[in-house]
Amino acid sequence: MAIECTHCGVKLADKAVFCHWCKTPVPRVIEQDPTKRLRWLKLWSYVFLPLFCVLFGLLAVQNQMPWLWASLAALFSGVTALGLHQHKRWGWTLNWAMVTAVGLTLAGVLAFDDSGRFVNKLFLTVPMMGFLWFWPNYVYWRKRSVLFT
After folding, report:
1. Is 20 within 8 Å of 87 (Cβ atoms)?
2. pTM for this structure?
3. Closest of 128, 130, 98, 87 to residue 110, by C-alpha
4. Domain regions of the chain by residue span
5. Is the pLDDT of residue 12 over 50?
6. What single-letter DSSP state applies at residue 56?
7. Distance separating alpha carbons of residues 33 and 144, to the nearest angstrom
8. Considering only CA atoms, which of 82, 81, 83, 128 is closest in space to residue 104?
């Protein structure tokens, strides 16, 4: 028995998670499984990734970072945000690289001391970021893999 999208009225398959036309989540799917909350997905997709895109663009314009690297990072952030917004599987896959890049960047930043010198704290920061950043993101995004087609 087919169901209808609550937003646009298009007929959907029984097991549909999102409307294939307007990308609106099917409410009963999210209500049935409370572990599939979407707050982090929305915050990451609509705030952090666009913010990274703007930040890297500004770094390129101000010559604070090599233009090519900053431009590629800005483009990568924007494309990942677009893929997540459209609930595409390739966006979900690119997101793993983005989560890894942010985690490694945070680990690298934490490995510098107050005078700006790189110290041998990397052996502490990488496991710490694994526990505090990678593991929660791994659990969150794996549970939501069904949302991306």
Report:
1. no
2. 0.68
3. 128
4. 1-32, 37-147
5. yes
6. H
7. 11
8. 128
